[in-house]
Amino acid sequence: MRVLITGGAGFIGSHLSDAYLERGDEVFIIDDLSTGSIENIHHLKSHPRFHYTIDSVHNQPVVAELVDQCDVVFHLAAAVGVKLIVESPVRTIETNVRGTEVVLAQANKKKKKVLVASTSEVYGLSDQVPFREDGNLVMGATTKGRWSYACSKAIDEFLALAYWREKKLPTVVVRLFNTVGPRQTGQYGMVIPTFVKQALADRPITIYGNGKQTRCFGFVGDVVGALIKLMDHEEAVGGVFNIGSNQEVTILELAERVRELTNSKSEIVFVPYDEAYEEGFEDMPRRVPDITKVSTLIGFRPTVKLDEILKIVVDYHSRQSSQAAATSGSTSGG
């Protein structure tokens, strides 16, 4: 099979590329490297069945050509991370909405199956935990910048499902909950890589808010496996699926586990939301997926528990730090 992945140099996109290549398929990616990184696909660049295009999904002729060459499309390109969303709301809205319009329109010409990656953020301020796909989405006020991301992704979902109902373009929507693993950067506010890097450097581990908020962290390998199975399953078409772990942990407990795993001397510091993001910033106290629907259809079960995920991420960033130190040493020593 020939697979197109938009945002393919991103954290999840690069792991999805790995999985399809290991399966024997051919992979095409497009990424403008605004939040993805060439480092994520460096190990794939010489692979004979891997092809990459550095460009934006807003470039219709380029997207049209790539879609024509492929059998299925994963649309992962999006603005990511709360920090980026708060700082660049215009970019967030334009990237998410316009990019999805282009991908769906081009895929529709040849009726290529499209999986659109959405987010748990669309549940907004809902308190109906665990979140079900048919539950109400409760958006905050338009004056609160962070909800621009949730709204733009909800529009993506509406558009994908409209293409299926009206034009019979086979589409699948997935709502990804916190996904973690190697190659994820803390640059845009991703909490686990941020905590791990801080702990390894014995810097203060910074918790935004009071630390009582809970999240569920799924391993990227589990998530990628679910994406591939949904793409392969005919009954997934026209559906919306939560994907993630349902193992809940408070952010404070998470910080303590990271500190313990790294034998760090870091102190844990609390930073008010207003100071971390913007005045009046709103956050959800809990974010837990109901994964019954995806489990029933494809047998999805999270296999990697939080402590194991943390060990994998700590090992990855420890190696990165060692390599950086070695490179720096050889450079300065030369």
H/E element string? EHEEHEHHEHEEHEEEHEEHEHHH
- The CATH homologous superfamily name of the domain at 2-179 and 218-245 and 288-302 equals NAD(P)-binding Rossmann-like Domain
What is the count of helical runs?
11
- Main sheet: strand order: 3-2-1-4-5-6-11
Which topology of the domain at 2-179 and 218-245 and 288-302 does CATH recognise?
Rossmann fold
Give the oligomeric state of the chains in this entry, treating copies of one chain as homo and distinct chains as hetero. single chain
Number of strands: 13
Runs with pLDDT <50, length 5+?
Answer: none
Note the beta-strand portion. Answer: 15-25%
Helical proportion?
40-55%
Radius of gyration: 20 Å
| The CATH architecture of the domain at 2-179 and 218-245 and 288-302 | 3-Layer(aba) Sandwich
How does the helix and strand content classify structurally? alpha/beta
Query: What kind of sheet is the major sheet?
Result: 7 strands, parallel
Tell me the span between the first and last alpha carbons: 47 Å
Chain-averaged pLDDT = 93
In CATH's first tier, which class of the domain at 2-179 and 218-245 and 288-302 applies?
Answer: Alpha Beta
Please tell me about this protein's structure.
By secondary structure, this protein is α/β, with parallel strands linked by helices. The chain has a domain of 221 residues: 3-Layer(aba) Sandwich (Rossmann fold). The chain has eleven helices and 13 strands. It has a seven-stranded parallel beta sheet, with helices on both faces. Strands 7-10 form a two-stranded parallel ribbon. Strands 8-13 form a two-stranded parallel ribbon. Helix 4 packs parallel to helix 5 and helix 6 packs across helix 11. The chain is globular. 43% of the residues are buried.
